[in-house]
């Protein structure tokens, strides 16, 4: 059966009408910044103080796009007679984001919480070599890492937080000035001076005795 003349036009107009009345989903970027989910994988930030140069992230990265250089340093013994220790010092930490496939393996395997996802994504470059972010730039990204979500009410405190709190309390206790002790000269003078009765007993001996009732 032949289609009704003009039915195609009516169908097209119906589609246009339906689309016109539907809510738009176009985001006016860059005038309006998109609302990204908290776990967005934008760029990787490095918290250098936590990095022990264990190389796990570089070894596990499937793209081999993490470059780490380090050297060993000898730390003197903390106590007399103790042993010297050696530790790794970071010389270079870089990630080539032109190779990175944002799998997140490096962040997952880091045993010391030194790598974090940031939702920042505006770091396009005209020169591909500029997509290799060195440690200073990776540290800058740390400022854009969102705070972790709040714990559920009554949840157990994470062991990392408890350890950090204990360390902060210990440092605060160490920084408090020591209780003032009498100077050595004062102690010597006190030892040489004739012994005096205890302050309380002196006061008691100087206090007038209460008169007894009926004794006048
Ligand atoms: S996200 Fe994946 S590909 Fe990118 S640096 Fe980390 S491990 Fe390598
Ligand atoms: S896994 Fe973590 S601690 Fe080890 S080198 Fe990588 S960032 Fe540093």
Helix content: 25-40%
Q: What is the CATH topology classification name of the domain at 43-73 and 85-145?
A: Alpha-Beta Plaits
Looking across the biggest beta sheet, what order are the strands in?
A: 2-3-5
How many strands, which pairing sense, and closed or not: the largest β-sheet?
Answer: 3 strands, antiparallel
CATH architecture descriptor name of the domain at 43-73 and 85-145 = 2-Layer Sandwich
User: Which molecules are bound besides the chains?
Assistant: iron/sulfur cluster
Domain 4Fe-4S ferredoxin-type: 42-71, 91-120
Family: Belongs to the complex I 23 kDa subunit family.
Binding site for [4Fe-4S] cluster 2: 61, 100, 103, 106
Subcellular location: Cell membrane
Describe the structure.
With 216 residues, the protein is an alpha+beta fold. Helix content is 31%, strand content 15%. It is built from seven helices and five strands; from the N terminus they run H-E-H-E-E-H-E-E-H-H-H-H. The strands form two sheets. Strands 2-3-5 form a three-stranded antiparallel sheet. The longest helix has 17 residues, at 159-175. Bound molecules: iron/sulfur cluster (SF4) (2 copies). One iron/sulfur cluster binds next to helix 3. One iron/sulfur cluster binds at residues 51-57, 68, 110, 112, 114-115.
